[in-house]
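Hi F.,

I've been meaning to write this up properly since the lab meeting, where we talked about keeping a consistent format for the predictions we share between groups. The idea is simple: the sequence comes first, exactly as it goes in, then the structure tokens exactly as they come out, then a line or two of notes. No screenshots and no reformatting. I'm using this chain as the first example so we have something concrete to point to.
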Amino acid sequence: MLKELRAFVGNLGNLRKRVGNVGNHGATFLRLNLSRKSEDHMPVDKTMNVLVVDDYKTMIRIVRSLLQQLGFCNIDDAADGATALELLRGKTYGLVLSDWNMQPMSGLELLKAVRADERTRALPFIMVTAETKTENVVAARQAGVNNYVIKPFTLAVLKQKLTAVLGEL
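Output, unedited:
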């Protein structure tokens, strides 16, 4: 199971060698199945609206540049979850990439709000963060994140995570 968790988050040097207890209960993981359905071979629409959420402007520029290198062209950004939620209510997006640690609304809180709204419930959501604690990965997974990218990351890692969520790029 730890191998599957590592595959979900990528190369995690800080991931604990063993899964400890979460609260008073033993940690339980469901089998992660991130692969696309075999009949789902439609090409990814790289003109879809993509929302990048991060309070660090340099990270927004990096993620935007990587997305552009992969062919995405309609990229908006927000500095926090609250601003992102406003944008999501006013425009249709095909993908959200969000940092975890932001104020006044964190990426996890944004994810929960996205999953609670009928209009955005199925929106692909990737957490892009430096948060490597097993508990955080589990919390994001339980909240409905589609994938998890650990900072720093490469273009190849981002492409792999996007492919797992959207299909072949």
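Notes:
The first strand starts at residue 21 and ends at 22.
The longest helix spans residues 57-69.

If this format works for you, I'll send the rest the same way.

G.
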